[in-house]
Design brief:
The protein is of the alpha+beta class and about 250 residues long. It is about 20% helix and about 25% strand.
């Protein structure tokens, strides 16, 4: 007999920033099971731009509410320990857990860096509207609050394909990073909106860089083992090079 389950999205954009969401989910597990819920989709559970961030402005994927970073230890939803308790309670009640995962971009970098870039037309990413020039962008991530626990990988400008602001000139727009092997994903690998919809927001991750690809695989293995989730929902998938997740 085929199994026809029911998944519930257990979050919405305007949840209170009280750090008690994981506690509420833990306490609600038995009730959800009694109502016929067989799977729960939880929000991004890692540290983002700040405590009130819903989770899509992702900063540190390894920080699940464990380290004092971006002015807070907990995420909007609670601490790492409370997340574990919620997942355990759901599993005890026969409910699968699917996590929302944001791998398209990174936000709230720790430092700026200087690099070469070309500004492109926001409505046609194939059209350049500037010459190649040096800009300053928020692209260095070294996670001082975590101090290398779980991973000592540091992110630099060459791990990204684009940014949305030049701090040097204070100009805003879409700046495609220039360098060896750099460029947007091929047109048939991402959505063709605006000509090529590789770039969405913040510092756009370049999955053409081998170190990025390997670090992301390592994080996924760590995350699944650490949380014991049953699956993921991949955010912004139409902006990510298809070969990266096939």
């Amino acid at each position: 007999m085929n199994f026809n389950g029911t998944m519930m999205q257990y979050f919405e954009w305007d949840l209170p920033n009280d750090g008690k969401h994981w506690q509420r989910l833990r306490d609600d597990a038995k009730h959800l099971s009694e109502k016929g819920i067989t799977a729960v989709w939880i929000p991004p559970c890692f540290k983002a731009t700040g405590q009130a961030d819903v989770g899509y402005g992702v900063y540190d994927l390894y920080d699940l509410g464990e380290f004092d970073q971006k002015g807070t230890l907990r995420t909007k939803y609670g601490t790492k320990e409370e997340l574990h308790e919620a997942i355990a309670a759901l599993h005890e009640n026969g409910i699968q857990v699917y996590a929302d995962v944001v791998l398209n971009h990174k936000a709230a970098a720790d430092e700026t860096e200087f690099f070469q870039a070309i500004q492109v037309d926001e409505n046609d990413r194939h059209k350049t509207i500037s010459e190649e020039h040096e800009i300053e962008g928020w692209t260095r991530f070294y996670f001082p609050g975590r101090r290398g626990k779980y991973s000592d990988f540091e992110w630099h400008w060459y791990h990204f394909s684009g940014v949305s602001k030049d701090e040097k000139s204070e100009a805003e727009g879409i700046f495609q990073i220039v360098g060896e092997g750099k460029g947007w994903a091929e047109d048939d690998e991402v959505s063709n909106e605006f000509g090529n919809f590789d770039y969405l927001m913040f510092a756009d991750i370049d999955y053409g860089h081998e170190d990025v690809f390997e670090e992301t695989k390592q994080w996924l293995n760590w995350f699944i083992n650490e949380t014991e989730i049953d699956g993921i929902r991949l955010d912004a998938v139409k902006h990510i090079k298809t070969l990266s997740y096939q």
